[in-house]
Amino acid sequence: MVDGGTEGFKGHARVIMPGITPCFECTIWLFPPQVKFPLCTLAETPRTAAHCIEYAHLIKWDEVHRGVPFDPDNPKNMKWVYDEAVKRAELFGIPGVTYSFTQGVVKNIIPAIASTNAIISAACALETLKIATACSKTLSNYLTYNGSEGLHTKVTEFERDKDCLVCGPGIRIELDPSITLQKLAINLKPYRP
Q1: pTM over the 0.90 mark
Q2: Boundaries of each THIF-type NAD/FAD binding fold domain copy (predicted)?
Q3: Could you give the 3-state DSSP secondary structure of residue 2?
Q4: Kind and range of the H or E element at 63?
Q5: What domain range is 44 assigned to?
Q6: In sequence order, what are the beta bridge partners of 14?
Q7: Is the pLDDT of residue 68 over 70?
Q8: Domain with 70 in it: what CATH number?
């Protein structure tokens, strides 16, 4: 698998070859944690524009539209959340609520830079060509790009996690072919983490 991603002026490309390079799970720690706001902060003490938007989206929508699911692709729904977020922001004196920012928060949109996307997609396409044609050695396994620091590109070779649940060695268990599912579950209990 050839994987790539961008966020603003930063990006990465990598090659994942089963049994040779680290799998996706081995390097999951590279990704930043998802941003979640405590509901008490949203409901009681908002401090940012994002808090006001999430309040309108997660709390106020359900209070007003009981049973009606929020559709982020419906412009009327998004406008309603935006209007409610503006009211809440004004109440707490918080600047920065715009319609486009509201869309970004609700849909979890990360800003993209066209040139960064082009560089990373070119790196992915090149690695795919190398794999398909064997015309050259593939990437060591992880390329990072940071356009905000000039044209900084670095290749890192990550190693497989020897205890990885996905690509690790696993545990060999020999069973009688006639075993029932219930007995299999009982036999697996000692191996659960």
Answers
A1: no
A2: 1-165
A3: strand
A4: helix 61-64
A5: 39-107
A6: 3, 142
A7: yes
A8: 1.10.10.520
